[in-house]
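Table S2 (continued). Query chain:
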Amino acid sequence: MTESMRAIGLYKHLPISNKESLINVTVPKPKVSGRDILVKIKAVSVNPVDTKVRANGDEEQEPKILGYDASGIVESVGADVSLFQEGDEVYYAGSISRPGSNSEYQLVDERIAAKKPENLSFNEAAALPLTTLTAWEALFERLNISADASVNQGKTILIIGASGGVGSMAVQLADLAGLTIVGTASREETISWAKDRGCDYTLNHHQDFQSQLESIGKSQVDYILCLNSTEEHWGHMVEAIKPQGKICSIVETEGKLDLTALQQKSATFVWEFMFTRPLFQTEDMQEQHRILTKTAELIAEDKLTTTLTETLTGLHAENLREAHRKVETGKMIGKVVVGAE
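Corresponding output:
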């Protein structure tokens, strides 16, 4: 007899105001094999990607389960697993091409998971994986910033959207890397949050960048990490980037970008998509295990902190709809987590 489990899923891609947008469902409990581990979910976090996948798509024949951040306990391991054993406490972001973490149990490839920071609760740990992986890959791989702080003295990064989930981690990592950090934030509470994480200066992203940068003596910057509306800020970024500088964005565009505008500066533009490695099963897929393991070490050393700001208790449809609603306002500071208990 096939075992079943509780989950939260959808059949139709609907606005979050519709109670059918996320519903409680019962689905078969997955069976472990290969390099997969089966995780008993203890907490999940909601990211903008959850809301985008939920709102867009065709009608589903089977319940589609979202969730791209989780912490939990390994219940069983596949025959080829070497990194974990039963009982290990883990955290991870998972893969966008597989059933997500909004369920009692989830299968995840061991190469993209890591042992949970020992000094964090499951709720605190669940806030970290997707945003940390995104920020880490963007800074140290896409922008090729050195992790050696001595190399980065005098170099400046502009982080557009410094108080959100990814921004909150990017600021901390950039601070560890010794960069001068200019973050954008527009409200008193977001400015305070960004500065507490490590921003040296803040700009209002609703106003002209150039005049604000000039007012702090930073007319051009070495790096730009765009975490909000690539199209809206494109002209500002082209103007603000130094010759031979580098721009990375995580936000997709509906229209075309004028890449020729970067030609005379020989500036680089690159995308960051955290799911690339698991989606394409890249040869370096296990880098995500390494990044999350290193993150746990930095947290244990008090060099990084969780960005959890709000917790909802009870992993069910009502709480997940509320978490999606909060994320869709675009005014979240840090991360919202839904704990299983």
